[in-house]
Amino acid sequence: MKKNYILSKSISLTVISLVCCLAMAIAAHGLNFNWIHFTLASILTSMLFSFLGFIVVARENAFNKYILKAIGWLLLLSVPFLGYFGLTKFYWYILVPTQPAIDLFQASFDGNIFCQPHRVCLRCAANLDCPHLFLGCTLNLKKHSKMKRIVQLTVADLKKIFRDKTLLLFLLTPILLILFVRYFVPFITTRYPEAAEYHVMIMMFASAQTAIMFGFISSFIILDEKDENVLQVIRILPITPSYFIFFRLIFAALFSFAGAFSMIAFSGIAFPGWSFAFLLSLQYALTAPLITLVVSTYANNKIEGMAFFKGVDLILLVPVLSFFIDSWARYLFGIVPVFWTFHSYDQAISGNDFWLFFLIGSVVYIMVIALLVSQFRKKVFDR
Length: 383
Description:
With about 375 residues, the chain is mainly alpha-helical.
């Protein structure tokens, strides 16, 4: 029965993965690729990561610990990409299961590549325990001055982040992303000079991701507080819901501003100037409150929160596609606030209509955040 359960889950996840992979391949290359190689690579890779997920989750009873270990395995299995990009010889990774997957995916678009045969074997733990989430959350709120309450809330949040290894990892992710853009992107550009044309887009994406991470952290702190009914206790404490929401959004926005500004200023590519860097960072910082409000309003727990985060993160990056559309249809992406930030960045580099896009974007951000604040008050505080 347990084996059938694991197999059924793997098959359903693999089918979904295959459909998504084919959709991306067709969107990017049309029908001009080897369907057999691509389908085989998609199926085997999906099965590999599905079984790996079962192995990891079978040993953990907390969602945060599972995410932390899963990220570690993903990083380890991504090492063969060093060979793909020419940093090392590919045969160093011949025993890593993802190396044959990379070979098959490459063979799908390059019929001349020679794919080494590999055999991959995984043993999957059969005893799956239901994760039990127990996450501590303490908030020492007393009747003091507003400044002291802000300090107390900030200290409590920072302690929570540093106690939680998953949140700490996401706190360090912007630093890793900055180092990646600073050193790896120029290296790739020296090997593939055509990549220089996409430096601005890379910076748009990287700056957005850096800012978004802090929204993720803030939203998960609120979900912790929802799990422990801290938000219900706030009703009888000397702190208003509006004050609580304001603090949470400012907390996320300030860290996001610092992350986005560091990315733009120190990445070493597509630098628009200090004044534009400051203004762009201000607008990027607004993505963190947006993420915080969406996830904490509509998710009931951290598992749902992770799903919402992935979905919103994807939606916020979709406006990059507008740069590949030359007609008025590109402005249909304008309903997503980050669209205006991306185009503000582009205009800051090209020196054209920066202020137009920046001002419109600021208005769109404020409208969306105001709507989400209203939804948060109704769903969380029943007001």
